[in-house]
Amino acid sequence: MEEKQSGICIYPGSFDPITNGHMNLIERALHIFDKIIVAVANNPDKKTFFSVEEKKEMIQTALGDNPRVEVDSFNGLLVDYAKRKRVHVILRGLRAMSDFEYEFQMTFMNRKLDRNIDTIFMMTGLRWFYVNSKMIKSAARSGADVKGLVPEIVYKKLSEKL
Predict the structure, then answer these.
(1) Active site residue 133
(2) Does residue 31 carry a catalytic annotation?
(3) Is 6 a catalytic residue?
(4) In the prediction, which pLDDT does 98 show?
(5) Tens digits of per-residue pLDDT, 86-109?
(6) Is residue 143 domain-resident?
(7) What tens digit of pLDDT does each residue of 104-136 get?
């Protein structure tokens, strides 16, 4: 049996785009984990605003050169990616009950696919409770100023695209 890496978690998501809520979760999770792999999911069936490479670049820029955070991407199933990385802990953020229902289903599906996978949930910081990527894109498309809700690099890239 292959040895798992301890003290490491994978924080997966579409991050289309990464928000200050995501950033807050990463910062707080670094108090618990030695290393976090921020893994951008590449779902070719899903139409995204930013490409995987654009998202990875924005995340890396927003996080700076923190040696405890790795920015990566993956195709296919999260459990397969976790196996390749030898990581058994998934980090997920929760905002509302609707998040919980979705995350609950995903957690049990992941557990069914790989009994060695555990999911840790963290509540989003109160300040970011209402912020999500879909709302950010919608507000920005409508001309709203989303400065302060997303990292500066994301604000710049959204402005360029719109």
Answers:
(1) yes
(2) no
(3) no
(4) 66
(5) 999 999 998 866 678 788 888 888
(6) yes
(7) 888 888 889 999 999 999 988 878 888 889 889
**Domain count within the chain:** 1
Establish if 40 belongs to a structural domain. yes
Overall pTM surpassing 0.85 (yes/no):
yes
Judge whether 3 lies within some domain. Answer: no
Question: Given 55, 56, 133, 137, which residue is catalytic?
Answer: 133
Strand ranges of the sheet holding 35-42, from the earlier edge strand across to the other edge: 69-75, 35-42, 8-13, 89-94, 118-123
CA distance linking residue 114 with residue 42, whole number of Å: 20
- Quote the domain boundaries for residue 124: 8-154
Of residues 14, 22, 92, 157, which has the active-site annotation?
22
CATH number at residue 76: 3.40.50.620
Supply the DSSP string of 62-112, one letter for each residue: HH-S-TTEEEEEEES-HHHHHHHHTB-EEEEEE-SHHHHHHHHHHHHHHHH
Asked whether residue 1 carries a pLDDT value surpassing 60, the answer given is: no
CA distances from 121 to 47, 65, 102 (A): 27, 25, 12
- Inside any domain, residue 2: no
